[in-house]
Amino acid sequence: MASIPRKSSPGSNGGLQPAIPDERKRKRMQSNRESARRSRMKKQKQVEDLTGELSRLQIANNQLLQSIGAKEQAFVQVDNMNNVLRAQAMELTDRLRSLNSVLQIVEDVSGLAMDIPEIPDPLLKPWEFSRPALPVADMFLC
């Protein structure tokens, strides 16, 4: 925008003084330009900061997803092992019942008193497990 210079009152040297409104306008425009430049720089810094934070969060998210995947695989393995152990416990309980019935028959036929322990059902009351529990680390070493 071109502006028409205004005449001012003659100075002590007889020349024209610069137009005060034009000087104010020029300073205001310069100030506005500087403010806009600072605003653009601030916005660019914010975008860069947000981009950096996005990258950090994506890395953290990927690490968490990998950790979750590893935990899920470990859970599946432990769950499968638990199912095998339950099946083995049921099979051994059936075999023990069978042996106890043979002992009962021997006791009835021979007349000898035999100590035949009652078989607890570990599946009905798993918290009343007959042997002491192994530490978690020992369970995985077996």
Brief sketch in words of this structure:
This protein is mainly alpha-helical. The chain has two helices and no strands.
What does this structure look like?
Its main location: nucleus. The structure is a single chain. With 142 residues, the protein is mainly α. It has one domain (23-141). 68% of the residues lie in helices and 0% in strands. It has two helices and no strands. 0% of the residues are buried. The model is unreliable at 7-15 (pLDDT under 50).
Which features does this protein show?
rod-shaped, bZIP_sf, 0% strand, transcription cis-regulatory region binding, 2 helices, mainly alpha
Write the layout of secondary structure elements.
Blueprint: H1 20-110, H2 136-141
Domain BZIP: 22-68
Pfam families: bZIP_1 (PF00170)
Main location: nucleus
Number of helices: 2
Which structural class fits the helix and strand makeup?
mainly alpha
Mean pLDDT over the full residue set: 80
Uncertain parts: 7-15
**Strand runs, count:** 0
Subcellular location: Nucleus
Keywords: DNA-binding, Nucleus, Transcription, Transcription regulation
Region (Disordered): 1-48
Protein name: BZIP transcription factor 53-like
